[in-house]
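Anyone else keep sequences and structure tokens together like this?

Example one:
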Amino acid sequence: MEFFLIILLLISIIGLSNFINHFLPYIPVPLIQIVLGVSLAALPVGIHVELEPELFFVLFIAPLLFYDGKNVSRHELWKLRKPILMLALGLVFLTVLVIGYLIHWLIPSIPLSAAFALAAILSPTDVVAVGAISSRVKIPKTITHILEGEGLMNDASGLVAFKFAVAATVTGVFSLAEASVSFIWIALGGFLGGALLAYLIIQLKVYIRRLGMEDVTLHMLIQLLTPFVIFYVIEHFHLSGILSVVAAGIVHGIFKDREQSPAIQLQVVSKSTWTMVIFILNGLVFVLLGLQIPSVSKEIFESPLFNNYQVIIYIFIITAALLILRWLWIYLAWWIGWFMKEEKLTKPSLRYVAITTIAGVRGAVTLAGAFTIPYFLANGDVFPQRALIIFIAAGVILVTLVLASMVLPLLAKTDKGKTEEAKEDMENLAKLRSAESAINTLRELTTDENRSASVSIIANYNQIRNQLLFVSDEEAARLDFIETTTRMKVLDVESAVIEKLKFNNEIDRESLYLIEEHIHRMRVAVTNRTIYRGLLIWTVLKRGYYNLLRLIIHQKHDSIKKRILKGNKVVKLKVEMARAAIKYLRQTMTAENEIVNVKLIGEYNDMIVKFKLANNLTDSRHYMSVQRELRDKAFQAERDEIQRLYESGEITLEITREMRRHINIREAYWMEETSIHSH
């Protein structure tokens, strides 16, 4: 029961970290989770979590690498295989040698093999961090794909090298020739074995589907178990379980792209489920890091063998060495790739080299690997400096995370600047993206039952979107002229409908007077927007007055009943006129006037719906309820998009707050308007 409560507490902390990051997106989520973990460990509740090394690998590494392999761009991975391998293999092995000797030289109490193990576990970069960096900083697509491929492959190469180094430390036996042959055998065997097992599991799912079992839950359960089963089976044969889950992920990604309609629902569920699983696993790793920091720090700081400041200096020296070595190798790898005439691989600028160097944040894989270091050697002795190795690994993770969160925004600012023009561009971007997000959300939610309400709201957002797409004064003036001209022509069409009815004696004199007065008011409104606003206010007040009369006297007086009947006739005439206007707008639509015509069609459609609902209280309330629900979803889509733009660094905090304020004002206005109409 106690262990279950601890798990619930840790998951709650992960959720809290996401909540905090929503308001402080410039602070990386892993840093927040580490701080929360440290805070939890500092509380006098006696929480202590220990995991067996093998269990830690299976529980965290297997699903993380499987997910990365499943979502990597395989086409780009193959096309850019040369520079990726230079980074994922060349840089990893160079890091093991150079940083390993540096660690042993700095801290002689760490044996050379253990120093190699620490260097190996520090070599992989965090794929999640690479994705976050590519969304915040304008990096060419080719370079982004190289970083993603490196982040995936160096996890495998770094962890394989780490296991060899740990095994050499534990057994005290190491042969470079035997290790090289074993590495090739273990790596190839693990990769091919993982691919084969993944293929067999996929065929099993296909067979189950042919039996008529389309249960998404069953297929999703098989997919979730896949990385754990494959990792365990391959490791049982003493091959690389790490590479096996990478291969399994790639194979699943290939078959996912080829699957047809029966698997669409599974793909949707799979994406949502894996997003949650990976978020929880990544979060657990960093929360556990935070939980371990106080005890590990205490063990190090209280040991008479180490000077506290000296240990911290070790962390900074090792971090600096990692970054310098990475900077040199990235620059060299790019140059070699350039000499090899790699397609679309251009000579890098110093700024891009700096960005990709700082982007080499150490994360979950580094920490998970560090926790798997055994406590004892084969002869029963304690593993040398295990606590110090974990402390240094945790320190490097913290330093690289903090450094990336501080330096990368500064490097990104050179593209954005702080000019008024850049601010205006950000505002327009935020407005446009939020409107498009709302439109896309409404289209996904549109059904036959709510189509009228949805089209009405989409028309409003389309108007906002179209205004933002044509922001120049000349274009705005041109569209305004087209709109004025088109509105006048549409009013002529409406007048023609009335003239036809008048000619055929199908309209009474009073209705004719009311309609002609309406058309006259609209002509004035088109040519003079100020007068139009006054007329609009007068119309609303007059409508409210008649509604009040109807409410007070309950339609008992004949004069009021006649007025209502006359109003119903006028409404029917206006609906007929609106349909004629829509027909004209569709027939005369061209590329030049499409934006204006679509806008007017939306207005007339909305008018028809409101006219139809005006005299049916039940339908009207249902319509307003449906529209209110859709509006709520649209406003939330806007807020989500604004938050995403802020988290990706495309807009500033000031613009984010301003956009949220505008959304809140529009939402409050909409709620007030619907409240008035519903009563």
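And example two:
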Amino acid sequence: MQQDKPIADLSSDEARDELARLSKLIAAANRAYHSEDAPQITDAAFDALKKRNAALEAAFPKLRRADSPALLVGAPASEGFTKVSHSLPMLSLENAFEDSDVADFDERVRKFLGHESSLFYTAEPKIDGLSLSLRYMGGKLVHAATRGDGAVGENVTENALTISDIPKKLKNAPPVLEVRGEVYMSHADFAALNARQIEAGDKPFANPRNAAAGSLRQLDAKITQSRPLKFFAYAWGQLSEPLARTQFEAIERLASLGFKTNPLTSLCAGPEAMLSHYHLIEAQRATLGYDIDGVVYKVNDLALQARLGLRSTTPRWAIAHKFPAELAWTRLDAIDIQVGRTGALSPVARLTPVTVGGVVVSNATLHNEDYIAGRGAKGAAIREGRDIRIGDWVQVYRAGDVIPKINDIDLEKRPSSAVAFVFPKVCPECGSVAHREEGDAVRRCTGGLICPAQAVERLKHFVSRGAFDIEGLGAKQIEMFFTDSELAVKAPADIFTLERRDAANPLKKLKNREGFGETSVKKLFAAINAKRQIPLDRLIFGLGIRHVGDAASGLLARHYATWGALEAALTQAQEGNSAWNELLAIDGVGKVMAESLVAALQNDTERAAIDALVAELDVVPVIAITPVDSPVAGKTLVFTGTLEKMSRAEAKARAEALGAKVSGSVSAKTDLVIAGPGAGSKAKDAGKFGVEVIDEDGWLALIGQA
């Protein structure tokens, strides 16, 4: 199972499947947490889900899904309240879990800005409550809204007016001011509230966060008024005029207007000071009297915040450093080997169930055979060289990963009968040789499609949500049809011939089989037929070609526009020819991905399966939508050399925001090359192809940033 493997060991195909699984889990957790105030998993478990998703998207940036949790904030507003559209989105924050993540954050910020000297940051406790936005017009509170999905929240104005920490009127405030912060409940007030709940025969709240969220989101404001809610202000949305020049001064301004701000907010000169304040707050955590789950760092200079800008759901200028998760000890009962869609053999620890961070854990990743043996990625000893054996007493943790990891073992408790684990050299599913390529941490089954585990997993991917998404045809049904003697589904094309084969079957009709009926069969065939017309990017993604994920499928679809053009290009491509060079020129397509694409389309068996599938489909081409208000919209740009006034990342982000395509190499299809000092072969290629070359000043003038 992909969720049992470390990210570094996942293939592109496995990462895509894991991202689909995480998307579903995180969406369900968001609904339970934000909309229903009844979380089904702990904060640590939710953070672990998000961290693994973020780490996967960082390791496989081209696999990001259209429904990625990274593109979503919170959950849709409840139907019980009127809706409020936020004038500026209420974004979530990127998370850090290790001290090294904080240094990486600082390095990313300075690299994006091209800023060599140290920067100042604010550091403040991350309150575990419910986000709230307060809009003041002419100093009067006109509405209060929850985060909702980040764009639209719930109108809880009447409830917010009952909270004493929230000013109803402001003096000397900007004409338009949106103050954002966190509604929370103190430990003492929470205990008193639960005592009253129990006395009244009502169900007690699980924790202060649930109590605060449930209280604020009451349809009867009188109930909210009876609950002891508090509010910390720490941010703002729309402003008619700036509050200050810096984050720290802006927080001070909010305090002067009458808002409660956190007294532990501090100004820090770089990562060392940030970490020092983090550990100071961590040491006080148990005595604060309210729940926090980390420390938030923000770039102090608001002008630099503006330059850094926003991602789809998180700002580049802030990060939440979460407190570490819990550890637990339990026994390793067995080691299972699972075979993935690309043939990877993944070891999974089966554990005596134990609670870690509020979640019952019975499985943990063992990464690969080296990890079990006590070796790291480069052969260096880990756990001081201690191997992992069945029967060992193991330490399990959940920091930063959705599936728990084994951190260490207790040799003193190792049974005398425990023997070193021997990793299999043959596939446990089909008996084929399991080969480990030089430099690869993963051993893979060489059976290909003759391996039932790989074949089934490829079919499961094909019908998955991010691919063809065929309703009523999930993993369970795929496993059933795969082994069916009369209506076997061994390849994707078999799905689309299923109805014809069932009609021609004179014996046992599908509607008469266990688990099916006439109505369900009609619905299944209708769902299959509905996907005969499929967008090009979904077809590419559904093929399950190794190293080609969701994002890469979109890149290929936008570049080639039609299946015929893509098929012809991949059929003709050979290293060094024009079709190959065009493929590599697509920004985001590297040599490994290109080789995988070409291999799939030029392999006789794979090609036959693809051709059989496409013959059943109507593949919808991509229609390019080009903005009309940008001088570079629809053009292909190449940046080369050193940019001195902005980083390469910032330049690329601006170009793409203006509707341009950014390529990694120059070709006849390139429209413009922006060359800084040190430009080399790409500048020469521009001359060869007759492509216009401008310097950085010319680029800034072109986009109106000079």
